[in-house]
From TrEMBL:
Pfam family, one: Peptidase_M2
Matching PANTHER family: ANGIOTENSIN-CONVERTING ENZYME
This protein's record includes keyword Hydrolase: no
Taxonomy of the source species: Bacteria, Pseudomonadati, Pseudomonadota, Gammaproteobacteria, Alteromonadales
This protein's name: Peptidyl-dipeptidase A
Binding site for Zn(2+) 2: H384, H388, E412
Record GO biological process: proteolysis
Signal peptide (UniProt feature, chain positions): 1-23
Length: 613
């Protein structure tokens, strides 16, 4: 998502400072920058927070507008305007966060302390206290974003392909060589990013060190209401819960790809070639569902086809997703949402097509920006984006410091939670599907869902494992690409289909790397959304299997969800989680329960196969 500074978001604005919370105080590391003459009191801290909030609110509004325009019209001029506002924001937050260190040693009420902590952690890319370096960093941020947004694959004698064109082809093509061509073609775009990225890492690390963190990755891990090292361990624990299910899915999918493309091309004891999974990054695999569909259990419908059959255009897709939220008792989106959002790819200019949700003014000026394709996959992404917008509106009355989700994974999880309720029963209710397939087809539905969601989980983890290693220096610039593929293999069991070298910069071909959006949030979201779904289904009084449950029309579920959303980040994420689920712990057992019938099927299918890579 994309928002102003105190909210998690994906672009430079957020880069300037997604304000998030930590319980971790690096008090000693921060040097007061002012000469203390009179004794500083708790009242001074309150006063400081109030005036800081005012200053930032004004700046955020200016930054949001500039960033919106840059993302919607990528030109040299808008890039400069974006860099300038990013510079101003970064400089301001660094100055204020440093000023705030004068309150490190005094006793404060919990609320003021929490706000000060959030201020300290607000920047995604902290800059050193040096005007020249801050300006350089902001230029790099704008340049990297622009390179991605303008990226195209141009082959001699053919029309250039946009990422959207390539995404559509990779979803449907089953031609090994064509897929390979697209896969390598898009990765030409990121080669020139490498030197910029390297410089950016050095500059922001310098800023993180001045803030008292070992490096920028350590700062990112400090935003989760627990010690940074504990958070990293928590990720490993939860991944350990899901890994057996992922391994079973991987084994089955590799076997089916072996049947399709031949075992010379898909050797059955190695990682899967990354271009065969229906997605440019092999991050979710739902587009090749038909290659793995269980016999006799295919539900016999496909949302892309249903949308086409009912002639849904992009706006109707958005209105349909909005209706889900209003059915739960949320207010409709303002008309300005429809007037100001971008729903289709303009033909005549470069835009940042990667979907994002915006909250321009912390009030009602909500928007999305998305080059919508008329597919079931994109219908889910629309729900995802609207989840951001409904969250943003729910916490708009919080102080600026808390106008953010409980942690960034929560922001990413809300729309996905709702999309889990897009079941056959729901599709029938809204008139898209004529007949709900009987339970014998559930296995097919679960397989499709697992191809989207379970396949994603190790990808959601590895992106920041790479960045953390890069920020910490464990991976040096001369090993950027190798380290990326080592992690792709380790976590996902996928591999580059052709030789890669350090002339390539494959991480840069994924939006969030040049866009500087932390990625662990999506890992968290994939775990949390199943926890939320399960609890909301219970609240809604669902009696069916959890994968058949839809909370459509449930005002009770909507009310409870809203209670969590409107907290913003005023409470710890553990407390917010307990509002919906009753428990303060992240836990993957809801996923395992959801997919239990599929796991059984996969393990039967995998008998006699050699799994692993
Ligand atoms: O970037 C997104 C959203 C915007 S916050 C469309 N997602 C990740 C991705 O596309 O890589 C959603 C799932 C993962
Ligand atoms: Zn998102």
């Amino acid at each position: 998502m994309k928002t102003k500074i105190f909210k998690p978001s994906i672009t430079a604005i957020m880069v300037a400072g997604a304000l998030m919370l930590t319980a971790c105080n690096n008090d000693d590391a921060q040097k007061p920058t002012t000469n203390i003459v009179k004794k500083i009191t708790a009242a001074d801290a309150k006063q400081f927070l109030a005036s800081t909030e005012k200053e930032l609110v004004a700046l955020y509004l200016e930054a949001s507008r500039a960033e919106w325009i840059y993302a919607n019209f990528i030109t040299e001029d808008t890039s400069q305007l974006s860099a300038e506002v990013n510079r101003k924001m970064t400089e301001t937050v660094v100055r204020l966060a440093n000023e705030a260190t004068k309150f490190n040693k005094i006793t404060l009420d919990a609320d003021s302390r929490r706000k000060l902590d959030k201020l300290k952690l607000a920047l995604t890319l902290p800059a050193p206290q040096d005007a020249e370096k801050t300006a350089q960093l902001s230029q790099l941020v704008a340049q990297l974003g622009g390179l991605y947004g303008k990226g195209k694959y141009c082959k001699e004698g053919a029309e250039c392909l946009s990422l959207g064109d390539m995404t559509a082809k990779m979803a449907t093509s089953r031609d090994y060589d064509e897929l390979l061509d697209l896969w390598q073609g898009w990765r030409q775009v990121s080669k020139p990013m490498r030197p910029l990225y390297e410089k950016q890492v050095a500059l922001t690390n310098e800023g993180a060190k001045e803030f008292g963190y070992a490096d920028t990755g350590a700062m990112w891990r400090s935003k989760y209401d627990m010690p940074a090292d504990d958070f990293a361990k928590e990720l490993d624990r939860v991944w350990g819960q899901v890994k057996p299910l992922y391994d079973s899915l991987h084994c089955h999918v590799r076997a089916k790809l072996g049947d399709k493309y031949g075992e010379e091309k898909v050797p059955q004891n190695q990682a899967i070639p990354a271009h065969l999974l229906g997605n440019m990054w092999a991050q979710s695999w739902g587009n090749i569902y038909e290659l793995v569909a269980p016999e006799n259990a295919d539900p016999g419908y496909d949302v892309t086809e249903l949308l086409a059959k009912h002639d849904y255009d992009e706006v109707q897709m958005v209105r349909g997703a909005e209706k889900f939220f209003t059915s739960m008792g949320f207010d409709a989106l303002p008309e300005t949402f429809y007037e100001r959002s971008l729903f289709t790819k303009p033909k005549d200019r470069d835009v940042q097509c990667h979907a994002s949700a915006w909250d321009i003014d912390s009030k009602d000026d909500l928007r999305i920006k998305m080059c919508i394709q008329r597919t079931g996959e994109e219908f889910s992404v629309i729900h995802h984006e609207l989840g951001h917008n409904f969250y943003q509106r729910a916490y708009k009355n919080q102080p600026l410091y808390y106008q953010e989700s409980a942690n960034d994974g929560f922001h990413e999880a809300i729309g996905d939670t709702i999309a889990l309720s897009v079941t056959p029963g729901y599709l029938k209710e809204i008139g898209l599907l004529d007949k709900v397939p009987d339970e014998s087809k559930d296995l097919g539905l679960l397989m499709k869902m697992a191809m989207d969601k379970i396949a994603f989980i190790p990808f959601g983890l590895m992106v920041d494992q790479w960045r953390w290693q890069v920020f910490s220096g464990e991976v040096a610039p001369e090993n950027y690409n190798k380290a990326w593929w080592d992690l792709r293999e380790k976590y996902q069991g996928v591999r580059a289909p052709i030789e890669r070298t350090e002339n390539d910069f494959d991480p840069g071909a994924k939006y969030h790397v040049p866009g500087n959006t932390p990625y662990t949030r999506y890992f968290l979201a994939h775990i949390l959304q199943f926890q939320f779904h399960k609890s909301l289904c219970e609240i809604a009084g669902n009696k069916e299997a959890i994968h058949r449950c839809s909370v459509y029309n449930s005002k009770e579920a909507g009310k409870r969800l809203n209670e969590m959303l409107e907290l913003g980040s005023s409470k710890t994420w553990q407390e917010a989680l307990a509002v919906v689920t009753g428990k303060p712990q992240m836990d993957a057992t809801a996923i395992l329960e959801y997919f239990a019938p599929l796991k059984k099927y996969l393990d039967e299918q995998n008998k006699g196969r050699q799994c692993g890579w």
